[in-house]
Task: inverse folding
């Protein structure tokens, strides 16, 4: 199985992304730390859809839930939704340029944030301000970075 | 281009199943505690991630300690020795008072106050949900921590453990909007509830009517009702009392005495159940 060869790379990239998501960089900048884990998830959903999809998104989401000390299943639901949509949107990724992909990724991140934010404000009184939404724009810059890094550093290629 | 054959219909079914699972998990996690083992399992996966994420700040502390000059270390040392002497002197008086208190309680045939045990823990510097007042600490189930355990800082009540993982735990601060703390005014024993506001320097005291005697500067301590927190520990000071003729309740805000958001070290406390029964009700 090819999947067994690729596995360590995928696990490693998720590990690095989860670390980047939880490194403290000061309160003001924190909101503008891109959702690295989500970007890595979208990348793998596109490149190896046979191995990474809603289920991976679900599991990674549960890890995010544990890390951010929120109710179990909130990020899990968001992760499985992004995994599912990213799997479905592969044709768009295949045929668009890096910057066009960034817009699609931004859309996915916004859907994710809307879902997670909505559930969290439903479960507990939380006030989501403008920063919560505006900070997603950083994704437009972060996606090309994630794409390039994962493409150059891992031996996994999209089989066309 | 030949797309990989991913059975699309099954992926939809799988996604739908996951949504259902998530709904069940969320329900179970908010209403029951049956997911504790799952949290423990996930927690042990997350521990190495937190460990690596904490490294930069650890290294910063290490560099700081290397670059510290000998004089300043000596200064700090002198200060600590000084403080230790002062604290031990106060402890002498405290021990005498404790004995006296026990004898008086014996005369009143009131039950004895329970003893408390404590453990010092440090902060793990990782970013949690920015919209939550929570911190992560480097003690966990392996140190005997449990969910609902009271947490203090050197000045007062800080919060309670909401998630105990093997080597780390999450502490919800008293300033979290979903945290409510039973308090008591030291001046006359009036009981109230302090709810977090989401801001680290403000608590809201709710359900006090204009008839209740509460003033700016009143000290608030834990009342021990509810059984989570031991009674009599400092919580805050009333900062503002606003009376609105159209409202049935007063708008009271308090400033926590604990250095919420600035602590490097925290204290976990175990208190015996005897202590609660004893402290319930007015004296």
Result:
């Amino acid at each position: 199985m090819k999947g067994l060869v690729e596995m360590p790379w995928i696990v490693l990239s998720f590990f690095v992304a989860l670390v980047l998501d939880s490194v403290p960089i000061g309160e003001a900048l924190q909101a503008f730390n891109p959702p690295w884990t989500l970007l890595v998830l979208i990348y793998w959903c596109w490149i190896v859809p046979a191995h990474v999809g809603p289920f991976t998104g679900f599991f990674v989401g549960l890890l995010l839930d544990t890390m951010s000390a929120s109710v179990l299943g909130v990020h899990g639901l968001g992760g499985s939704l992004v995994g599912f949509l990213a799997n479905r949107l592969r044709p768009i990724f295949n045929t668009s340029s890096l910057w066009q992909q960034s817009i699609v990724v931004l859309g996915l991140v916004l859907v994710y944030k809307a879902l997670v934010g909505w559930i969290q404000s439903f479960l507990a009184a939380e006030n989501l301000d403008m920063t919560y939404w505006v900070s997603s724009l950083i994704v437009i810059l972060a996606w090309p970075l994630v794409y390039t890094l994962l493409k150059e550093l891992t031996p996994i290629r999209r089989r066309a | 281009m030949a797309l990989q054959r991913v059975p699309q219909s099954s992926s939809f079914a799988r996604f739908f199943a996951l949504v259902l699972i998530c709904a069940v998990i969320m329900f179970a996690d908010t209403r029951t505690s049956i997911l504790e083992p799952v949290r423990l399992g996930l927690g042990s996966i997350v521990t190495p991630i937190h460990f690596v994420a904490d490294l930069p700040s650890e290294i910063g502390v290490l560099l700081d300690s290397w670059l510290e000059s000998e004089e300043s270390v000596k200064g700090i040392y002198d200060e600590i020795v000084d403080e230790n002497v002062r604290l031990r002197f106060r402890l002498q008086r405290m021990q005498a008072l404790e004995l006296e208190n026990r004898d008086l309680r014996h005369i009143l045939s009131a039950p004895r106050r329970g003893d408390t045990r404590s453990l010092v823990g440090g902060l793990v510097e990782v970013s949690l949900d920015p919209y939550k007042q929570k911190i992560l600490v480097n003690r966990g189930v392996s140190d005997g921590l449990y969910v609902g355990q009271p947490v203090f800082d050197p000045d007062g009540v800080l919060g309670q453990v909401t998630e105990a993982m093997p080597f780390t735990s999450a502490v919800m601060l008293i300033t979290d909007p979903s945290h409510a703390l039973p308090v008591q005014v030291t001046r006359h024993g009036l009981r109230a509830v302090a709810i977090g506001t989401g801001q680290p320097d403000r608590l809201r005291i709710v359900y006090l009517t204009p008839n209740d005697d509460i003033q700016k500067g009143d000290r608030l301590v834990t009342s021990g009702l509810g059984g989570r927190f031991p009674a009599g520990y400092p919580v805050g000071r009333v900062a503002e009392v606003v009376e609105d003729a159209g409202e049935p309740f007063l708008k009271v805000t308090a400033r926590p005495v604990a250095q919420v958001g600035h602590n490097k070290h925290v204290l976990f406390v175990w208190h015996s159940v005897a202590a609660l029964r004893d402290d319930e009700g007015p004296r």
The two ends of chain B are 81 Å apart (CA to CA).
